[in-house]
Amino acid sequence: MAAAGAAFGSNTYRNGAHRSSVKADGKSLAANQSFKSSSSASSSSASSSFKSRSLQFRKSSPAALGGANGAAKDGGGVPGRVRVAVRLRPRNAEELAADADFADCVELQPELKRLKLRKNNWDTDTYAFDEVFTEFASQKRVYEVVAKPVVESVLEGYNGTVMAYGQTGTGKTYTLGKLGEEDTAARGIMVRAMEDILGDISLEADSVSVSYLQLYMETIQDLLNPSNDNISIVEDPKTGDVSLPGATLVEVRDQQNFLELLRLGEAHRFAANTKLNTESSRSHAILMVNVKRYVKEKDPVLPMENGSNSHSAKTFKAPIIRKGKLVVVDLAGSERIDKSGSEGHTLEEAKSINLSLSALGKCINALAENSAHVPVRDSKLTRLLRDSFGGTARTSLVITIGPSPRHRGETMSTIMFGQRAMKVENMLKLKEEFDYKSLSRRLELQLDKLIAEHERQQKAFDDEIERIHAESEMQIAETDRKYADALEKERIKYQKEYMESIKKIEEQLVGDQQKHDNDSATVSHNDYYSNGEVSSISALDEVADLKKLLEKETILKKAAEEELTNHKRQLYQSKLMEASATSEILKLRKLLEDESRQKQKLEGEIAILQSQLLQLSFDADERRRQLDRTGSGNDSNDLDCLTAQVKNPQLSDSENGEKASVAKLFEQVGLHKILSLLEADDADVRIHAVKVVANLAAEEANQQKIVEAGGLMSLLNLLRSSDDETIHRVAAGAIANLAMNETNQELIMAQGGIRLLSTTAANAGDPQTLRMVAGAIANLCGNDKLQTMLRSEGGIKALLGMVRCGHPDVLAQVARGIANFAKCESRASAQGAKTGRSLLIEDSALPWIVQNANNEASAIRRHIELALCHLAQHEVNAKDMISGGALWELVRISRDCSREDIRTLARRSLSSSSTFKAELRRLRMDY
Ligand SMILES: Nc1ncnc2c1ncn2[C@@H]1O[C@H](COP(=O)(O)OP(=O)(O)OP(=O)(O)O)[C@@H](O)[C@H]1O
To answer: Residue with the nearest Cα to atom 13 of ligand 1?
Structure first.
């Protein structure tokens, strides 16, 4: 049998460890391999919600896919972790009858891909999956989301695995192996996968062959040839490939042919009867589908023998075989041995199933945690799945669960298995505690952003400063230049004017001189007086001219001075601008300094937080070490550790989860020690102890031990003696958990529990305390034997008294109590054990019931609707119900209730009561 890839056995291919993209034919595989969410819920696009798009990956050689080593050399395997979907089975008839009054243990939020698991009456845990299928999900959608992407990758030459895991009777075989002969819509994954495979391949060239096996009590049998009942697993030591050479391999030609093989296999499949499911499959069924395809791809151009060049060369298309293997595994039921009621041989079976499933769980843990050793050899199942799970195989896991609160333990462990398969670090259990690590990470991120922002700002400031500087220098230089130009111009002008005036004066002097000389030659000595007169006139003219010149010079000088003043002003303004730019720069520098200071402060804070974180880790280690040194020493500290450990079981033991942690707690400290602390003097210690006991009491497996060790008495005593409301709240919560068991209910009643709970309720102010008390009384209300006593001790009145707080969670518990009580009464009436009117009516509960019958909170409404239906079963209540307005509500329920079982019950109640019928006739009403 062909096998490809490495997984469980290979360190190279841890599941999801390879996130790097694989290049093939130049295309990145990473995008193709990631399974992205799609917002569309339509079935045509359903497959895209588990994967993004089909693989477009082409490998040039199948050998490269064939083994871990080959693929590793390629530089990576196929990334993508195990995809996990959860599917809820619809209620079966038995559950409809038995659990009608109890809330389902799970609530699905398919739109958020989340599942809420009810921990107890008041608490839920939330888990995220890759897909969440409600009880209404069609087989088609389940196939398209879970298996189709795997089938597509098998057709591309990969290994692919689809597995179903879950408690017996939760629908694994329905999901995977349903043939759907009468109703094609019911066809399961195996049938639909083969339809897709046959539709995609070419029957002439390609081939599909199947083996169908079962693994039962560590023996592999051939379901297609039952005499072949000890098939051995062969592992290729080099590649890690797994093959089963002894298994029958049948070639499939058409769908009919395949259905016959499945039918044959089913006929041979071993099915042992267990108490839980008469059709329960006690073996693991494994269908292996080998797909061999021929892919034509171009070989390199081959030169002709004579070495001629490409235009004379011939191009060959060589066939390439691509082999993919699809493994569909219908695992045996995962229920706990003690619950299945198995005995003798069946017990051995259950143990062997548990062994192989727990080996599978360990391998998944190891893969998820990337641990160096994957214990693949621990069971045949894990050896067989070695090359099919993780690594180069694309794997989808469907975990199937039932709705019944009675199987909460199994449902929880199935969910945890699914969560681990999604990888431990992907476990999305919501917690509401302070996470210093993430705070520190957030601060670091913020700091990084701030630093980047500062750097950006600083660069902008520097650039701005440089710009202003350059601008001012340019302005100064420009002003200097202008000033020098103006000065030069003035100087030249003055010089020119001066030279001109000198020239003029000289010319005038020369003219005067000549005139004078001429006159001297012609004028006689007698003219002395008259000549003297002319000469003095000409001197006066000269002085006048010179004066004018001087005035002109003065004006020019003034103008030049003004010009100078102007330039000086301009220079001054430039200096002012420079000063303002400098002050701007200073301001920016200051800003920068402030930012740096802020940054330093933040860094300081981070350092403090980191040191706090270190301190916390140190404290946690210290406490763990203290706990490891057994329960001796200081009580309060030990209890802190215990409380933390009980509250966070997966922290302390990721492998086996909560149960292991609680078991460890018992082992290490001892229940008696914990219980003794309920009476400790120190109030803190007492509170811690009650919390620890309450957490322990939430685990069904611990409840009997707690009661046997006197824990119930101690808790009741605390209600009696303590004034502390925290203690009341937690103790009442623990009592409510213990009150889920019939024997404990009687013990609680015998110890005056109802009176204590009633008093606690009367004194409580906190709605959470009331919720716990109401939860405890509601559980007691479901016990047929305790009805009269519960009422006479004031249980009903106490319940009704608590509605005063109006908190919807409290009202829901009250409504549940009333529904439980009414159901027990209607059972007693049917058996003739009760004749009078309902004690609920006697205690005036009817008005509240009618008032809340259509409460908008579904948790309240559903219980009240059931209570009304139960009350209506007993004819003696009919008159009160009519006068109290309950008939209208019953009619409404029979028409509008969203739950069919409740609608039917209401209709039956109406039609079986002559009083109701008469009243309806009188009112001319139909129902
Ligand atoms: N989604 C569903 N819708 C309707 N019926 C279902 C669904 N799932 C399961 N059932 C019914 O519940 C019953 C138990 O289912 P199934 O046999 O598939 O459980 P199982 O998990 O395979 O049990 P086992 O582990 O014992 O093999 C069957 O009658 C099946 O038809």
So the answer is: 169
Kindly report each contact of residues 257-262 with a partner whose C-beta sits within 8 Å and lies 24 or more positions away, as own/partner.
Answer: 258/191, 258/194, 258/198, 258/210, 259/179, 259/181, 259/191, 261/210, 261/212, 261/224, 262/177, 262/179, 262/190, 262/191, 262/212, 262/287
Tell me: pLDDT of 922 over 70: yes
Confidence of residue 717 (pLDDT cuts 50, 70, 90): very high
Is the CB–ligand 1 distance for residue 414 below 6 Å?
Answer: no
Amino acid type, 718? L
Classified as helix, coil or strand, 212 is strand
How many CB atoms sit inside 10 A of residue 915's CB?
A: 16
Letter string b/e over residues 800-839, b meaning 16 or more CB atoms within 10 A of that residue's CB: bbbbebebebbbbbbbbbbbbbbbbbbebbeeeebeebbb
Instruction: Name the β-bridge partners of 235.
Output: 242
The contacts of residue 137 (CB under 8 Å, 6+ apart) are 87
Please tell me the pTM assigned to this model: 0.48
For a ligand 1 pocket test, name from 168, 173, 286 the mutation site with the most ligand atoms within 8 angstroms of its C-beta: 173
The protein residue whose alpha carbon is closest to atom 23 in ligand 1 is: 169
Q: What is the CA radius of gyration of the chain?
A: 47
Ligand 1 center–CA 95 separation, angstroms? 13
pLDDT at residue 778 greater than cutoff 90: yes
| Predicted-complex ipTM score | 0.98
| Nearest-angstrom CA–CA distance, 252 and 290 | 10
Nearest atom, ligand 1, residue 332 CA: 25
Question: Ligand 1 centroid vs 169 CA: distance in angstroms?
Answer: 5
Instruction: State pLDDT tens for residues 32-51.
Output: 333 333 333 333 333 333 43
Q: Locate tokens 């003034």: which residue?
A: 558
Ligand 1: residue whose CA is nearest its atom 27: 281
- Please state, for a pLDDT cut of 70, what percent of the chain lies above it: 71
Q: What is the pLDDT of residues 824-859, one digit of tens each?
A: 998 898 888 888 899 999 999 999 999 999 888 888
Cβ burial of 295 (10 Å; 0-12, 13-18, 19+) is middle
Q: In a 3-state reduction of DSSP, which class is residue 298?
A: strand
